[in-house]
Structure formats: C-alpha cells, structure tokens
Amino acid sequence: MYKYIKVEKEGFKCNVTLTRSEKRNAFTPTMVNEIDYAFRQINDDGDIKVVIIRAEGPVFCAGMDLKTFEDPTLDVINPHIVNKNISLGEVFDSLLKPSVAILEGNVIAGGFLIILGCTYVFGSREIKFRLPELELGIFPFQVMASLLKVMSEKQVLQLCLDTGYFGTERALDLGIIDGFLEDGKAEEVINSFAEKDEKALKTGIYAMRRLDSIAPDERFSFLKNVLDELKRSR
C-alpha cells in the first residue's frame, strides 16, 4: 500500500514509521501524500486514540528531498494515492488525534515540520538538531511557522540563522522536545490514552485547530457549539 511509510495499528495505538532510511528519510511529494492519506484513515478510525511517529535508520528525517520536488519524475509514484500539492506542515495540522514523536536519530531541516506537528516529542539524549537551509542559499520558511507554535519570534529567527547542530538540552529548553526516551516518560504518555474517550480527544483537537481562524469575541460561542454537538452525539 505504501512506498515510504509503514502504518501499524495496535489496539488504541497506531504507529506511523518513516521507512526511506537509505535517503535519511528525506520526504518526497509521495511520502507527504502517503502520510496525509494515513492520517485521514486514522482520523476516521474510532479505535485509534494516539499516533506514534517513528523512523527507521540513524536519521529521523533529513527534511525535504529537494530534487524530487523540483523534478517529480524522480519520485516514486504510489498508484493507490492521488498526489496533492500540500505541505507537510498542513498534513500534520490535519491530524485530529494526539501524536507522539519518538526520536532515535537526528532531525534536520524540514524534519522539524514533523516533530513540531506532534503533540509530544521525546528524543534520545545523543541526537542532534539542525537547520542548514542558509548554507544552501534558501531559508527554513515553512519551519518558521511551526517553530512559532513553541517559541518567541526572536528565538525562531536566531535558530533559523544558526546553521550548526544543537543538542537535546537546548531543544528541551526551547520547547522543541518534551523529554528524553531514557527517562521512560514516552511510554507513560502513550499508555495514558488507553482509557480516554476517542471522540472527545478528536473533537478537542479539532476545536483547538479552528480557534486561530475565529475572531476572539466569537470563540466562546464557537466552543459552546462544539461542546453541545459533542454531547448530542452521545
């Protein structure tokens, strides 16, 4: 079914694993659309309460495979999925279930779109992070939007201007990750969703995602309507 990812359902959990390890899990248009397709299936599955994002190989994600975006003929088309012109950030914003990123390899460039799109992020202490775009004559434009979810504008700009690697302690201080895999907190967070109500989780995340597009003086009315609709669905 999939060329670049693996999707495995396990009770209330669903593992989505990047499997393009030979290319450091750099994402192509097909991979983005495969993740989008998987997320749409997950959103519609009432049994799934939490999504775990993993990656095969020594690098979690090296960002965008620029060659495949410039020349789509270099990508491997998945005949089962229609390729849409969508960004990875949009795809993660469309997921309506809590998500946990498990980082056992470095995160580079557009790989930040994945982890910053997750509800929780836990990484191995020895991994590194890097935004090298300026050295390539470009800028981490899309990553900026995701970084602004967790840090100030000044911190975002400084991070985008610094093209060197930084470690997990700084990532923790900046709010990019939430803890270390070695501490065992990740499994605790994942298992905490076992007894939670799937419809309430999904509706809450939907409402949160909509708030930015609603005028401040209309938000309480919107949220009341969402709550009323959730109660009527019982």
Automatic annotation (TrEMBL):
Keyword Manganese in annotation: no
InterPro entries: ClpP/crotonase-like_dom_sf, Enoyl-CoA_hydra/iso, Enoyl-CoA_Hydratase/Isomerase
Pfam families hit by this protein: ECH_1 (PF00378)
Highest taxon of the lineage: Bacteria
Keyword entries, A-Z: Membrane, Transmembrane, Transmembrane helix
Coiled-coil annotated spans: none
Alphabetized GO MF terms: catalytic activity
Transmembrane annotation, as ranges: 100-122
Family assignment from sequence similarity: Belongs to the enoyl-CoA hydratase/isomerase family.
Name of the protein in its database record: Enoyl-CoA hydratase/carnithine racemase
Organism: Sphingobacterium nematocida
